[in-house]
């Protein structure tokens, strides 16, 4: 999809999110955004296709790197949680004096 669009990528993503979350008809959402309803329909379809098929641009190395980063972040959050748990127990004991 090297074809350029007159709409920025972020606008298209936001429009798709709005169309998916809205109870209004797609044509009405498109009209409110000032885009053709078929254009919005295509954006939604493309987003659905992109979600169902794994990206060929994502390599195994990138996935492994992301997994390492996520595991590191989980470890940091678990440590923070433990520190906060201990602090809460300490202050609860102090308040009981």
TrEMBL record:
Pfam families for the chain: HTH_Tnp_1
Gene3D superfamilies for the chain: Homeodomain-like
InterPro entries: Homeodomain-like_sf, RD_transcriptional_regulator, Transposase_8
Region (Disordered): 46-66
Protein name, UniProt field: Transposase
Organism annotation: Actinokineospora xionganensis
